[in-house]
Amino acid sequence: MIQKGQRLERVKAPLNLGNQKAFTIQIEVTPDRLVQKVRVGDEWKALDTFVEQGRDFTQGKFGF
User: Fold this and answer.
1) Model pTM?
2) What is the pLDDT of residues 22-53, one digit of tens each?
3) Number of neighbouring beta carbons within 10 Å of residue 55
């Protein structure tokens, strides 16, 4: 992640998704947060959530 020109490393955790070769990804973008989820069976598992006070995630760009 890059913030104010500085590269920041986020903590990485194992996802435990098994041996799946294909994934369905969902990205929720709301003014107050950005949530990335993956479908596992019949459920959605959150991969990452970004919340930043005073930031509108519907304005601008993001990548994953």
Assistant:
1) 0.66
2) 889 999 999 999 899 998 888 898 888 888 88
3) 14
